[in-house]
Amino acid sequence: MQVELLSLTQRNLALTEDSVAGYGDLSTIFAGRSTYAEAIMEFAGRICYRSTQRMGTAPEFIAARVREGHEDIIEHAVVTLRIRNSVEPLYWRTLNRHCEVTDIGANTWVVSGNTLSWKMDMTVPMPMTLDCTATVDGDSITGEVKAGAFGSMPVSGTRKA
Fold first, then answer.
1. Other residues' Cβ atoms within 10 Å of the Cβ of residue 158
2. Residue pLDDT, tens place only, 60-114
3. What is the CA radius of gyration of the chain?
4. What is the 3-state secondary structure of 34-58?
5. Strand positions, DSSP E, the chain
6. Cβ neighbours of residue 66 under 8 Å, at least 6 residues apart?
7. Whole-number Å distance between alpha carbons of 45 and 50
8. Fewer CB within 10 Å of terminal CB in the chain, N or C?
């Protein structure tokens, strides 16, 4: 399987803390301590919980909201990937409602979303189901593959220039 990063949510450079000052609590987005995409997701969640004054103070805020079932906040950041030499993306749209999958032919897919999860059945050298997850952050993708009795293995990649 080949994975190519096509696009991701990035900040409009014209939007600065000063340029949004006076528009409610919008400037608190810049208090985030991570990527812009994560700051947007945290801000969306903090708006819902009326806690924008706490932006950037809880590194696990997004993960905690998703564990609680408040997954809508992750829809505010999007990545788009091209997947080649695989039929697995066909199953992703049923496993993850935040994942849009387009078949462009010849086992090539365009996938949009920020976190992917899928299963792959392999038969060689032995039958096994691989349980995979990956998250895109900036120009990189990281995750893990759980391979039954063989344990977990890291997965990573970096965008080519």
1. 11
2. 898 898 889 887 788 777 777 777 887 777 666 555 556 677 777 777 777 766 6
3. 18
4. CCHHHHHHHHHHHHHCCCHHHCCCC
5. 2-8, 79-84, 100-105, 108-112, 115-122, 128-137, 140-146, 152-158
6. 73, 74
7. 8
8. C
